[in-house]
Every structure is written in structure tokens, then in C-alpha cells.
Amino acid sequence: MAPTKLKNEGAASPRKRAANGAGAAAKAAKPSPAKAAPETGKPAARPKARGTAKGRPLTRIQREKQDIILEAALDVFSVYGFRGSTIDQIAEVAGMSKPNLLYYFPRKEDIHRRLISELLVTWLEPLRDIDADGDPIPEIRSYIRRKIEMARDFPRESRLFANEMLQGAPHIIDMIEVDLKNLVDEKARILEGWMDAGKIARTDPYHLIFSIWATTQHYADFDVQVRAVLGKDRGGEGRFEDAARYLEQLFMTGVLTPKKKV
What is the domain extent for residue 201? Predict the structure, then answer.
């Protein structure tokens, strides 16, 4: 089966953001370094359904304001991490006053938890879509390519997640230990079934998934290094297609192709 090309760029953010017009102004602002607020050391509660602090449903304008805040927070958190970011920085990038921001999100932890929770849903969608009844080679190839597309289109989100992992995942450890683990266990069983059927070579299914994560997300988290080493001739947008083709070859022919019996 011939490899497919990566989908075109320009995909929307993993979050559905309604604040396109105001968001442009927010992006133009640069977060100024500031001293981080004291940490509580306690994990934030799971995000509640959208609404004001008083529990009333949000209006369209309020939803747009909330989306502007989350977009600005993504910019700030992806650069400074959770501990290095402050409400003041986020308000500055969002182009609104700190009291206005606090009306929608009383704590920095609430904003961060909301971003990470929504990110995980989208980030894991390609893994969820692996179909036990499908042909394993196209299924795994599609997974690799979708992960590369996400590395290309959502580098801030990838860095946000990486920063959280480097800090020990204090805000989402419960999601990782339950939701993520259950999903990976399910897909590992699918991979083992394909191995038992002789459709792919036998290997450790968990480390196979980890390897795909590591090799694809490298192109988001270490993009500066990739572009610098490849140079001007190879460091353009075509680097993602080159990466996808290489990783297909690495996993499809080097790892997963069953060895012929002699």
C-alpha cells in the first residue's frame, strides 16, 4: 500500500475557539516574564461544565471571552510552563483586565486543567481510532501520520503537555493513571491480537506505542533543533512529510513486518 501524503496545514486548534477576531489581537501581545504565584501543591478539581462562577449558562459573548483566555493561556503555558506563568501574563496576552479574567477562571489551576483536559481528548483521538477489525499496517501507518500532522499543526499543545510531564504531571496524574492507561491497555491488546495472528511482528506493544509517541512528538517539541540541523534546504515545511515517510519505513518494514519462516 502506497504511503499517503500528510493532510494540508491550516487545521483548527484542538479546541473549538470562537474568538478569531479578538484572538488575533491577543496573539499580537507578548507575555512579559513575571514571578510565578505561589503554588498550592494540590491538584485542581476536574473542570466543570461551561458557566459563570454563579453557575448560569454562558452567553455567546462570554463563551468567546473564555475562548480568548484559553487561547492566551496556551501561548503562555507553552512557553513558561505552569509554574513560570501567572494570571497577569495571561490577562496581558488576552488583552483584558485581570479582574475580568478572574470572573471566568478564578485560579490559574482552573485554566491549566481545562486546557490539559481538552487537549488530552483530542491528543488521544488517533489512538482511539485504531480499529481491531482493520488491516494492521494501514491502521498503524494512519496513526503515525496523524501524530505527525498533530506535531506540525499543534506545537504549542505538544509543548504544554510535555511541560506538564516534566513537572511530574501534578495536575493530570489521575487522568493518566486511569483514562490514558485504560486506553493504552485496550490498544495494546489489539496489537497483541495482530501479533498472535501473524499479521505483524511480535514486539512489546506498550513500547511500540511509546516509540511512536516519542518519534512523532519530537518534531513539535524539538522543532527548533530539527530545523537548525536540517538547514534551509531541508528544514522547510516538507520536513514533516519527510519525517512521516521515514517513520513509516522505520516501523512498517523495520519493526512490524513479520519475519518469513525459513
Answer: 120-254
